[in-house]
Amino acid sequence: MKSLLIAMCTFAALFHSSFAAAHKGCCSCNKFSKEQEKQIQTLLQNEAGSLRQGMQTMCPKKSTKSNPQWKKVNGENPVCFGVSGDQPGRFTISKEGFVAAFKLVHRSGSVTCEKDKCHGHDSYSSKWGCSTNHSYVGSTPLGTFITTQYKRVLFPREKFIRIKSMNTWYALPGFEPDSDFLVFHDFANPEFLQENQELQLWYGEDLENFNEENNVGQTCADVYAWYL
Ligand SMILES: [Ca+2]
């Protein structure tokens, strides 16, 4: 933008000097000479080209495809994970590359963080974690994690997690426990994934083997990755 402004100012100065010269040298007929007209025409053409280039830089072309970067990772079958007894959902990366985001699209099922003795086992149930009504985890009610096969958490990023040393609960701006899908992204620090690498979906309390005795349910989802 700065270079564009400089170019426009340069053009204005040149135009002014050309006009002044023309006016001085041709004051009787009050118009440019052929040579001056040609010079100004060339200047205008050059500046029009610079202006067009600048506008294209500021307004990059939109892709004609919708969401061309989302690539479905699992096949026909969804990835399903349970809530206790080490029941991750497993899926395999088929394409090597840098992935900046994942999208989990809910297909079926629900999970709960705590069987509610007063209201039935599913009163805290949701698609991705617990309930916003829960007295303890309600403010950070999401509990679905993407990990490597060695249980290293890839998403969500640590800054969203309630207790950094325990990958159980988090809050993600824009998403709720019953959102139809979750999107995790970190375009500044994409993950490099290898062909045939296994990743897993975990329920946080199952991942950490913490307070999982009172959990119930299973969630199934499709997994999409955003390749750079
Ligand atoms: Ca629990």
Automatic annotation (TrEMBL):
Keywords assigned: Signal
Give the residue range of the signal peptide.
1-20
Top-rank taxon, per record = Eukaryota
Its recorded name reads: Secreted protein
- Native organism: Porites evermanni
